[in-house]
């Protein structure tokens, strides 16, 4: 929430603004295959959000194989790397891995 090593770097309001979909009803002309279906915040993709529009799962998938994510509802962060798969395969694998992890953890979001 904007604090690193006990020091405030960004305000909590700034983080909240970054982690909500910023595109509104705009027509998205292009999005990387790895991010298809996600909303876009400020510098991160919103994989899931709550009823108020706040991001509950955020990520910034890399085109060359990295998939970092933070799941605020389940209280975990992860980083997945895939070197040799095609982009479409990576998204399927990333989604399946996240689903497998999520099934093991309870969510504190409604």
Low-confidence stretches: none
Number of strands: 7
Structural class: alpha+beta
Discrete helix count: 2
**Overall morphology:** globular
Strand order of the largest sheet: 3-4-5-6-7
N-to-C SSE series?
Answer: EEHEEEEEH
Cα distance, first to last residue? 20 Å
How does the major sheet shape up?
5 strands, antiparallel
> How much helical structure, as a percent, in the residues?
10-25%
Work out the radius of gyration. 14 Å
Mean of residue pLDDT values: 84
Per-chain topology:
Layout: E1 3-4, E2 7-8, H1 12-18, E3 39-40, E4 45-49, E5 55-59, E6 66-71, E7 76-81, H2 87-104
Antiparallel strand pairs: 1-2, 3-4, 4-5, 5-6, 6-7
Question: How would you characterize this protein structure?
Answer:
- This protein is of the alpha+beta class and 110 residues long.
- 23% of the residues lie in helices and 25% in strands.
- It has two helices and seven strands, in the order E-E-H-E-E-E-E-E-H.
- It has a five-stranded antiparallel β-sheet with strand order 3-4-5-6-7, with no helix packed on it. Strands 1-2 form a two-stranded antiparallel ribbon.
- The longest helix is centred in the last third of the chain and has 18 residues, at 87-104.
- It is globular.
- It starts with a strand and ends in a 6-residue tail after the last helix.
- The relative contact order is 0.14.
- The model has no long low-confidence stretch (mean pLDDT 84).
């Amino acid at each position: 929430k904007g604090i690193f090593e006990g020091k405030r770097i960004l305000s909590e309001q700034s983080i909240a603004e970054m982690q909500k979909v910023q595109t509104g009803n705009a027509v998205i002309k292009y999005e990387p295959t790895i991010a298809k279906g996600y909303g876009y915040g400020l510098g991160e993709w919103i994989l899931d959000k709550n009823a108020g529009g706040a991001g509950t799962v955020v990520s910034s998938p890399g085109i060359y194989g990295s998939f970092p994510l933070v799941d605020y509802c389940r209280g975990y962060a992860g980083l997945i790397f895939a070197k040799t798969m095609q982009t479409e395969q990576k998204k399927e694998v990333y989604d399946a891995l996240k689903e497998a992890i999520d099934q093991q953890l309870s969510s504190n979001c409604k």
